[in-house]
Amino acid sequence: MTKNADQPLSPAGLKTVSLRSRRSKVNVGHFGKIIPPSPALAGLVSSLPDTLAGRDFKELIGRMARARRLKKGLIFGLGAHVIKVGLNPILIDLMKRGWITALALNGAGIIHDFEIAFCGRTSEDVGEHIRRGRFGMARETGENLSRAVSRAAAEGLGLGEAVGRMIVSSRWPYRQLSLLGTAYRLGLPATVHVAVGTDTIHFHPRMDGGALGQSSLSDFFLFCSHLRKLDGGGVFINCGSAVILPEVFLKAVTFVRNQGYRLEGLVTAVFDFHRHYRPLQNVVLRPVGKKGKGFYFVGHHEIMIPLLAAGLKSGFPGKS
Questions:
Q1: Average pLDDT over every residue of 120-135
Q2: Could you identify which of 4, 225, 235, 247 might form a hypothetical disulfide with 267, taking C-beta atoms 3.0 to 4.6 angstroms apart as the criterion?
Q3: Is residue 13 in a domain?
């Protein structure tokens, strides 16, 4: 019996709305377009000044090309904002071309990836909806993702695989634009790293906290398994996660090294529109050691990630 007179609130009786009727700020019509490789793209990257961020950008592309030649891992960690600004088609194209060998998402990432697959829209107006207690109340989002969480735990799956399988097996009209669905189809690992209480689906009545923790912890150790493949020049890129994924990455690095894998020559990069403490320390500086290298690029994701994709696909030689 708790000594606290106040009892926890219950999610029973949550007032939800249909995702299909909720006003969303982003739809698939806003998404970025895939462009094929061309010499002009190589020329664009080559034309960047060979100093400061321009030099670093070209060097990163060269190091990623080297990692691909050596069959080292190319892991992309994605904050949810990357999905909301319409980058799924560009990232899916990189996955299909072998420029991404594994994905890591935070908990919000599965919300937006699901909503895109389900109805082609996502990203509600938080300021408008929170005043009336309607933020995060999309019924289909809470129900379907809660179901995937429960199935993941029951079947011993990671959360990323369970959500990807659910999307692939559905008839939702935009499932081809799902990152997790694509990863599942291609057989690429996709992990989801959750902080309890940070995501709107956590207060939906069907969410099982035990299953959520179990499936996300399973994904942490799967992430560690694939992190081993970065030894000798593999690359980890953190796009748009200021706290969760940098913290997960740092803990994964120390766990993997504790298990006897050196992770020498580790290459890391951060792409974000602000310079943040944790990505700088936990991704760019602390993990790489003397033989590795970290990069930090400040700019809008909707510009920087297509530019990175163009450079990778163009055959730009870079510096390795």
A1: 88
A2: 235
A3: no
